[in-house]
Structure formats: C-alpha cells, structure tokens
C-alpha cells in the first residue's frame, strides 16, 4: 500500500445541518488509512480510541436501543415471535460475538441491509450531545505532541461511527478510522488479533509494529474488557479500560486474573492496564 491510497473522509451529518460548531462536520485526513510511511528510525506513536460506550457514556442506553432494533430485525426477517427471536439472538451473540454474524452465516442475511435497519436507524440525535469537555480534553492531549496520530477503531460499521463522532462534536480531532466491515465475510472485529493487525498495519506503514518496542509505545482505550485484555496480550504498552458502571468495576476487581492484567488496580504499574471511571480522566493516566 502507498500513502496515496488514503483518501480523506469528509461527512456532514444531515441531522446537524446548520450547525456551525467545530467538530460537527467530519474531516479525517487519512480516512480509512493508510497513513503516510513512517520514518523507520522513529515509529509512529498512535492513540487508538474505541467509540461506542467509550467516547459517550453507556448510560445513554444506545446499546439498549440497538438491542431493540436487533430483536425487531430477527422477528421481521426470520418471521419469529418474541421468544424465538430472543433465544436465537442470544445464541448467535454467544456463539459468534456479533448477532449479525449468525444471521449472515445461517440465514444469508445481507449485512448492509441489516446495518441500515439497525445501526443507521438509531435515534442518536435524542441521546448524543455536543461534548465540549471531552473535545477540550482531547485537544489538550493533542497539544502535548506526544502522539503522531489519533485513530478511531470501532466494531461498528463506518456510517454509525461517523454519525456518533459528529453528534459529539469530535469530527475534526482524529486522523482516521478503522471500522468493522460488515460487507466482508467472515466479519473481522475486536478482539480478534486479525483486526488489531489490520489497523496496526494501516498506521505503521513502513515500521513493522511487531518490531520490539513499537507496540509498547502505543495507546489504546476501550470500554470492553475483552478488547483491552486482547490489546494488553498483544503487547500494547498503554492500555486504558474505561469502566463506567460501579457494578462492572466491582465484578472486574473480583476476577481471578485481575492482578495479572491490572496490577493492584491503582494505575501505579504502567505496564498493566489502567482503569478510568470517567473518560474525562483519560488525560490524568496517559503519563509521559
Ligand atoms: Mg466500546
């Protein structure tokens, strides 16, 4: 791949038409990647950001809105009653990690049609709002010049990712986006190693990210326990787990492998996963 393959992404969310606020329009200079070749003597240092339930709070209940849409999709597309739809949805989620994967494998569902009726149909406007505080914090982190790139990494399809970022007013702060491509089969998403390798390749063009020390310099923030553990296992040196809910935090601390992944849980050991309870605390745990 060459740098010329990267096309900038611009997107104006029609639901925000007329908004003059910075960041409501999207401009990602390197689009879906790749970024320009790095100087091999100086590997890129990238901050990778998850989007859903990470750059906005889980308490927006977007996840629940999505579950309702998925349930309706199972009912309508497979002609199931509520109970059958619920069972199948749960089974596919357990078996494949994504309900969609089960639908594509077993029912030849068109993944992009599904996406249009589920993710793209969510009423995000009613729950996601311009987040000036988050915007200001991300700008402060950028201004430290510790990072060469800010990169979004999501398990959603691109449309949803761009909509979310525009509603939050963060559309001009990232260099690019890696999304989960529902049009491919099988679907590759976090926490699969293949997905990590895919976005690492796109952001470390001429520097092999497997070179010792390169992954140690990278930053990754996500609200999903399996995703942060996967990043940590792969060798990311700076993994941050956003744990919003108290109940989830308590459960996490009780796990037998807590110390292995999180140390004593006070973020003192920078070789372990760091925990933030509010995304606005990100700035305080990024170290030097
Ligand atoms: Mg997430």
What does this structure look like?
- It comes from Meyerozyma guilliermondii (strain ATCC 6260 / CBS 566 / DSM 6381 / JCM 1539 / NBRC 10279 / NRRL Y-324).
- This is Pyrimidine 5'-nucleotidase.
- Residues 1-20 are annotated as: Disordered.
- This protein has helices at residues 62-78, 82-96, 99-107, 111-117, 132-143, 158-168, 193-203, 225-234, 246-253, 258-262, 282-285; strands at residues 9-12, 25-28, 46-49, 149-153, 176-178, 219-222, 238-242, 274-276.
- By secondary structure, it is of the alpha/beta class.
- It has a six-stranded parallel β-sheet, covered by helices on one side.
- Helix 1 (62-78) packs across helix 2 (82-96).
- The longest helix has 17 residues, at 62-78.
- The two termini are 32 Å apart.
- The protein folds into two domains: 9-57 and 128-286, 3-Layer(aba) Sandwich (Rossmann fold), CATH 3.40.50; 62-126, DNA polymerase, domain 1 (Orthogonal Bundle).
- Helix 6 (158-168) links the parallel strand 4 and strand 5.
- Bound molecules: magnesium ion.
Strands, helices and their partners?
Blueprint: E1 9-12, E2 25-28, E3 46-49, H1 62-78, H2 82-96, H3 99-107, H4 111-117, H5 132-143, E4 149-153, H6 158-168, E5 176-178, H7 193-203, E6 219-222, H8 225-234, E7 238-242, H9 246-253, H10 258-262, E8 274-276, H11 282-285
Parallel strand pairs: 3-4, 3-6, 4-5, 6-7, 7-8
Antiparallel strand pairs: 1-2
The structure holds magnesium ion.
Region (Disordered): 1-20
Pfam families: Hydrolase
InterPro entries: HAD-like_sf, HAD_sf, Pyr-5-nucltdase, SSM1_domain
């Amino acid at each position: 791949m060459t740098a010329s393959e990267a096309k900038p992404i611009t997107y104006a969310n029609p639901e925000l038409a007329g908004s003059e606020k910075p960041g409501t329009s999207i401009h990602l200079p390197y689009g879906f990647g790749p970024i320009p070749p790095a100087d091999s003597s100086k590997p890129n240092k990238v901050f990778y950001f998850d989007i859903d339930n990470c750059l906005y709070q889980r308490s927006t209940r977007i996840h629940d809105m999505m579950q309702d849409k998925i349930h309706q999709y199972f009912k309508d597309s497979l002609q199931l009653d509520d109970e059958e739809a619920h069972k199948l949805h749960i089974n596919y989620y357990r078996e494949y990690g994504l309900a969609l994967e089960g639908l594509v494998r077993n029912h030849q569902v068109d993944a992009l049609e599904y996406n249009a009726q589920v993710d793209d149909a969510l009423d995000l406007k009613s729950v996601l709002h311009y987040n000036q505080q988050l915007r200001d914090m991300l700008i402060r982190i950028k201004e430290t010049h510790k990072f060469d790139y800010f990169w979004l990494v999501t398990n959603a399809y691109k449309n949803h990712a761009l909509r979310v970022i525009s509603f939050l007013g963060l559309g001009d702060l990232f260099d690019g986006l890696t999304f989960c491509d529902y049009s491919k089969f099988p679907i590759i998403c976090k926490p699969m190693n293949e997905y990590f390798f895919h976005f690492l390749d796109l952001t470390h063009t001429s520097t092999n990210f497997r070179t010792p020390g390169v992954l140690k310099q990278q930053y990754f923030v996500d609200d999903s326990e399996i995703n942060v553990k996967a990043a940590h296992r792969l060798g990311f040196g700076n993994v941050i787990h956003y744990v919003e809910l108290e109940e989830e935090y308590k459960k996490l601390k009780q796990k037998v492998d807590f110390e292995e992944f999180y140390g004593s849980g006070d973020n003192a050991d920078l070789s372990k996963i760091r925990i933030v309870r509010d995304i606005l605390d990100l700035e305080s745990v990024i170290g030097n």
